Task: structure prediction
Amino acid sequence: MKFGFTSIYSWRPHVEQMYYLSRLAEQGGHEVRFLTCDSDLPTCYTRQMRKHRPSLVECTACRLGGIRTFTSENIDALHDYAGLGQPVLPNASAGIWSSASTLGRFESPADFESPEYFETAERFRPATEKAYDAAKAWIKGQRLDAVFMFNGRLDVLRAVAEAAKDCRIPYVSMERTWLGHGLQLLPNENCLGLKTIDKMIAEWSDKPLLHDQAMIAAHHIAARFNRSNSNEWRAYNVNAQTNPWPVLGGKHRILLLPSSRSEIWGQADWNSEWSEPTAAYDALIEHLKLSPQDMVMRCHPVWAQNIGPTNGKRSEAYYSDWAKRHGVTCIPSKDPTSTLGLIEASDVVVVYGGTAAMDAGALGKQVISLCPSWYQKAGFQSTLYSLADLAELKLHKDMQPTARERLQNHIRQQVLRYVYAMNYRVMQFTQHVRCIKPTEYQYFDGADPARLTRMVVPGEIEADDKRYASDTSEEAQAIRALEAKDWESLSSPPPQHLHKKLPIQRRAIYGMVDYTRAKLRRGDL
Result:
């Protein structure tokens, strides 16, 4: 087969990871072609995110991180194919809305109806049209059988995905993984697709873990509590202070943990039936007859950080205004109060797709989720995607103590299985692509190239680790450690048996590129 590989944006570490995949494909006997940008676009997401830099500087830096620094063979540029087709965007324009949402960090319904949002989106249209036109001509001209691409969500990246769809060939989106090791590879979905993940998580949620699997999953959970999770793209609340629950006199301790909608905006898989997230809060208050003293809202720490040129003031204002109107205590994003400490002090944690659900579940807390997410099939959340779900919603704290304790341990068990399934079954090549730090990886021999073929036909991934236990006894030690909050005993990761290291690196002439880039801030900061 003939595979195309494209990253377009040379954000670390994705070009290197794409090159690794191309080498694996060649090992399997496939022919490979690359598509890159040689400063071919009128604008792009990177240049919009770093408008303080001249375009020439940004484009030069991007090219110095691109695929040509790894190989000089089988590379095509957008300008080689642009203008050969018809730049009609039946679905690719969804990428411009996604880029605008992420770049501007828009949040409220009013934000998404604002002139600023539409003006931001239109900046990406010319580049997206050009990329779609060129990618479609490239696919046809090179007679590709499938395309592997980075991300598949944003502007020109979505354009490549839509070009593949319109050419009726399969595509696979690639992203770095949540906890670092392996690659996220989703057939015929962009990086936020849930169909593949839902199927895999559901399939493995009732399979007990072996001892080593359970301990690896528990180690990753512990790393978040003892703040040693250095392989995640962002670590929040690093210098946090554990404070008492800030409200007295309430009947309940319900912690509201909102998340940004900007990155999932327009992603159909993540849609709930709520008109907006705060509508779900209103329904929850009415259904459970809550008073303001029953709730605390914790604004997400990322809202205190700039991502590119934009801070999180829109998100913070949207949620803090709601809290003020309802008399709910709201902890600002800049506040050093530990979110993990608040989770530990709470009875119930209400999330909007955020990974804090895993932290809460590891402590046996009830997790109420207001929208679809990666863990919706894991079996530990209480689902509240619509008014209809309220009929089934009951608080665990109102149960008899024995039944509540059983349920808490069931939640811990399901979280443990989810963490392992998400990171070592859904994620691919986890023993061959190893994270040293968020922008630095090592690669090891022994991966099966035929798995790439099966991602294309029939278009499904297979579990990276297919082992499981015959009963729950081997999970018991890890579950007891979670129950005891014994993060210290889980701090050292179990040993990994790796294969021979592969020389995945830039061409000799570009040897200083990674050394220099390592001293720069990561791509979206």
